[in-house]
Amino acid sequence: MKSLIFASKIVMKHLRLFSLIVLGLLSVQSFAQGSKPKKPAANEQKEISPAVQIYFETNKSVIKPAEIAKLKRLLDTLDTKDEFRLILTGHTDSTGNDELNLKLSQARVDGVFQYLTDNDIEGDWMMRQYFGRAKPREKEETSEEKKAKNRRVEITILEKPKPIEKPKPKPVYKDTCTRDTTVFISGLGITMKACDLAKLCPRGASNCIKIKRMTSIEELIGSGIPLNTAKGEGLNWGGAYEVRMPGDSCAVVPVTMTVSLDAAVYKKAKLQVYTRDGETGVKPDKTKKLGVAKGKEQNKYSFPLSCNGSYFICGGVGKSKTAIIQDKTGRADEMYVISQSTMAIIPCKKIGKGKWEVSYSKIEDPTLTIKLSDGETVVSDINMNSVRKMKKPGILRKKYKVKMKHLNSAS
Fold it and tell me: What are the chain's domains?
């Protein structure tokens, strides 16, 4: 009987020991599970910061052409986002006092804000903040390069991430449509298959396809796009057109754009479709043939679209002759010889202090347009007869002198 009681005690002792071991293992497992990092929710906003940085000249709030190009690329990026918000923050370098810098940073942000709203970004989707010189990127401004990095507007995208989906096989495009249709956007004709248009723009083309057209000399000069070939040749312009369609649909759907131009003005102009040639020039796009349907009053020019981007309709004006223009005012930053009759724009090349050169072949009724060194003021329609009396209208001579009276008398 005693041996039985003793054996029972041993069994109970081992059971208690086994229970303690099991509880210990469960505690370790529970601790290990509790220490795992929490996964972010699928609908949490993620931040890409900064998406774009727009830089400015000292004490200026005017957006430079190179920075405009950044904003255009941002607009293309935003077209791919289903839901987003933008934060615009303005900054300056350490030059000047706090009050002036705060106002300057506000002016810079407001300029960027205005450009984005002009290009169909809702104002309610953007938040503006101004910091003056309080939050520099470069705290030690030991060089002009470092100061330049502080003169900026930073644009941050807050994007709602898309749910993770398994990749789907790429659909094979089959041309099952038999009827073409044409819609008119900003006065331009867009032709494609009717069923393709319905798929591309289920809510209507006017809210889907966006085209910005620049068809005046003032618009072209102020656009920041290159106005000559890489070799410095001026151009006759039929216009510049920025086309934006949803996503990359234009890569698979055949699309044709048609532009109407005055038949008398462009009767002899050898227009083609041009594309960018680096940052400072344009060149003929050999992949796009410009079709012409001639009429009594208007010619219709059409060409295929392959993707979103900028399209230029223009033609070379030649450069077999040269004229020299002496800027006696010292205020010219850019200079162009203009012909309104064919909308020719011939950029002048600066070849020395106050000395400019223009190469041309033939230009009718030329005038002069000058962008002053303040970066904002443009003086146009300076009659070349007033700069130097020409032998007869439409013929340029070799030498000209621009004085203050020409800048003050022009519009």
Answer: 46-159 (3.30.1330.60), 180-316 (no CATH), 321-409 (2.60.40)
